[in-house]
Amino acid sequence: MFLLDEHGSGSVNWKKNLIVLWTGVFLACASFTACIPFLPVYLQKELHVPPDQLNLWAGLVYAVTFLGATFMAPYWGAWADRVGQRKMAIRAGFGLAVTYMLGAIVQTAPQMLAVRILTGLISGFVPASMSLVSSTLPGEKLGWGMGWMQAALASGNILGPLLGGYLSVWFGMRTSFFVGSGCLFLVTMMVIFFVRDIPISKETRRQDMHVVRDLRLALQNRGLLYVMFMFFLVQTCIMTIQPLITLYVEKLMGGAGDASVTMSGWIFSLAGIAGIIASPYWGKRGQRKGFVRTLCLVLFCAGSVNLCQVFVGNIWEFAVIQFIYGLFLSGAVPNINSTLVEVTPPEMRGKAFGLTTSAQQFGGVVGPLLGGFLGDHMPTKFVLFTTGVILLSAALYTVRTRLRKTM
Questions:
Q1: How far is 280 from 143, CA to CA, in rounded Å?
Q2: S-S: 187 plus which of 24, 43, 181, 383, CB 3.0-4.6 Å?
Q3: At what angle do helices 142-171 and 125-136 cross, to 10 degrees?
Q4: How far apart (Å, rounded) are the C-alpha atoms in residues 29 and 123?
């Protein structure tokens, strides 16, 4: 079996992998956020969906991708254990490039819905890249490297909406899809020419793939179940406030029209900016102090900060709290990913990342639905307070079930 030595030397150049895949994740996330936040406007202006049907179609084209990815991620993860994460990244990259191209040329809402379904079924570039980086990093660089990968994701999420907004104004909304397709094709070619995977033994390649059986065995791993639960919970908390922020900002600004929309964009970006700043630090701290211990800390601090939302009286207080909240919550994903590497053997890493991706995508479905439901029954500040309570509960659960075992 192939192993990296303590300096990461060997037939796999972990530094080159990290640089190329960091760039790939950054561009993939930027491509996604350059197009997807503007889907309602795209449906209305380009596909001519009637105003009374707009919310229905927007919800459908958004949710079907998450649902498709939820069901397919374990299957692609099981395949990755047989053929390698590099091939899975190439498959997903080319597939997504095609779906973005199709998204640029569709003429009706049902056609866009079909494209979004296809996108969910073939997605997986980012989790494959994360898994590949985690498998090739030297042990002492794991937390640091995963922190930088999380920063790549956050950076793409910041740049994407800005890029998509300007492209839409200057060249039309379809241009964002064309540019996204080109970026995904570029990053896939980078993976082909510059990224190398850990070799897979002939015995592993010859094994029959029984997805249901393999998943049943994987789910007997209590550490993996914990990681899946944490991914689901964090993603749910992040996505719960997505449908509420724009209206909440408008209320805090006293109905400022276009100014409130612009401010909402900046508020959305604050968590990403905080992630760029803090993710590498939290990854390194997890390496030194323990990934579970650091995860417990960031969940506790992020939850405590969100409890302060009940005292918000103006937009600037809200912006400051959101930024501080992002500084802490950005430490969750790199430490959860690093914990996943610790609790799973290399030969089942693909299945494990597939399962955690499913859990995360399902959180992307549940979060907006939960936020919309709570928003109909309580003020937005108390919805934010509720997410703080959930994160504090997750921290307490981590202390009781995981952290005590490491003491």
A1: 8
A2: 24
A3: 150
A4: 12
The Cα–Cα gap between 255 and 249 comes to 8
pLDDT band at 289 (very low <50, low <70, confident <90, very high): confident
> Which residues, at least 6 apart from 209, have a Cβ–Cβ distance to it below 8 Å?
78, 79, 82
Cβ neighbours for 172, distance < 8 A, ≥ 6 positions apart:
none
CA dihedral 135, 138, 142, 148 (to 10 degrees): -90
Indicate the pTM of the whole model: 0.70
Note the pLDDT tens digit of each residue in 323-380. 899 889 888 888 887 888 788 777 676 677 777 877 887 887 787 778 777 877 888 8
CB 197 within 8 A of CB 132: yes
Who wins on pLDDT, 71 or 393?
393
From the centroid of its chain, how far is CA 184? 16
Do 283 and 335 meet the contact criterion of CB atoms below 8 Å apart? yes
Are 295 and 335 in contact by the 8 Å Cβ rule? The answer is: yes
Q: Quick count: other Cβ atoms within 10 Å of Cβ 77?
A: 30
List of residues 6+ apart from 148 with CB closer than 8 A = 18, 22, 279, 280, 283
- Nearest-angstrom CA–CA distance, 116 and 108: 13
Average pLDDT of the residues in 174-191: 91
- In angstroms, the CA 100 to CA 92 distance is 12
Q: Which contacts (CB < 8 Å, 24+ apart) does range 319-326 have?
A: 319/266, 319/267, 319/270, 322/267, 322/270, 322/271, 323/270, 323/271, 323/273, 323/274, 324/274, 325/271, 325/274, 326/270, 326/271, 326/272, 326/273, 326/274, 326/275, 326/278
What are the chain's domains?
Answer: 9-196 (1.20.1250.20), 211-407 (1.20.1250.20)
CB within 8 A of 23, min separation 6: which ones? 152, 187, 190
pLDDT of 260 > 60? The answer is: no
Token pair for residue 398? 């981590």
